[in-house]
Amino acid sequence: MKELLFLVADLWLMATCWIFGFKMLRNYGNHLLTLEYLVVAVSSTNFLAWSLLGGDENSPMYHLAYALDAFSRSFGFTLILVIGLLTVTHGYKPPLWVEVGATGLAIAGAVVLGRMHSDVLEYDAQHLGLAIFYVATNLLTTAFLAYFTMRVWKTGATGIAVLTGLATAAGTYVALTYDFFPYPFDDANRTIFYTVALTVWGCQGAAYYFAYRAMHRHNVATGRVATQPMEARA
């Protein structure tokens, strides 16, 4: 039963990130948010394939999983997410050098930090420092997302704002428990934790897309931006 719930949670994350990633590109042309959505989509697809094929720790998919995880936890679902959301909160259109720089940092995080992390929660100084870094970047991002949620609330989309706030709080909970507070009742593969995490990350993906859409429509209604041709399909 645990394994089935894990597979459903992974499929949920895959679906939300593939669908809303392409919607973000098609409807809004937000390249940075699209990139992060699709990285998580590839990561969850890889994670599912690796699990179904036996979970061999010598498989290239195992190392790819850590690299993609590091991409998102370092500068992807943090810096890239914030810059992408600034488009609807402040009308910020990042120049090419900003997009390339943020993407480069996230790739560097994937290459360097992906090799350092371990799912065995026994720390030396290196692993402890990495875990603290991941939590710190998440908390800083959470502070911005609290502001973003408030902005969505002020547009009148209160239901979406509540969903965004709850998804953000749940995401912070996952970030804290990821490295520091393992479930004592979980198995060696942390099946229960990953089921919870995948479910929450999928909810975040959906919530942030709908919140972005609400902010964009508010900006159009107030004359801050022009209506995009594909907006009707959002």
Write the layout of secondary structure elements.
Layout: H1 2-28, H2 31-52, H3 60-89, H4 96-113, H5 125-154, H6 158-179, H7 191-221
Helix pairs in contact: 1-2, 1-7, 2-3, 3-4, 3-5, 5-6, 6-7
Please count the helical segments.
7
The stretches of 5 or more residues where confidence is low (pLDDT under 50) are none
Give the radius of gyration: 18 Å
Number of domains: 1
Strand fraction = under 5%
Shape descriptor: globular
Q: Which assembly state applies to the chains in this document?
A: single chain
Name of the top-level CATH class: Mainly Alpha
Instruction: Give the averaged pLDDT, no decimals.
Output: 90
Please trace the helix and strand order, writing H or E for each element.
HHHHHHH
Biggest beta sheet summary: none
Relative helix content: over 70%
What does this structure look like?
With 234 residues, this protein is mainly α. The chain has a single domain, classed as Rhopdopsin 7-helix transmembrane proteins (Up-down Bundle), CATH 1.20.1070. It contains seven helices and no strands. The chain has helices at 2-28, 31-52, 60-89, 96-113, 125-154, 158-179, 191-221. Helix 2 packs antiparallel against helix 3, helix 5 packs antiparallel against helix 6 (158-179) and helix 6 packs antiparallel against helix 7 (191-221). It is globular. The chain starts with a helix and ends in a 13-residue tail after the last helix. The model has no long low-confidence stretch (mean pLDDT 90).
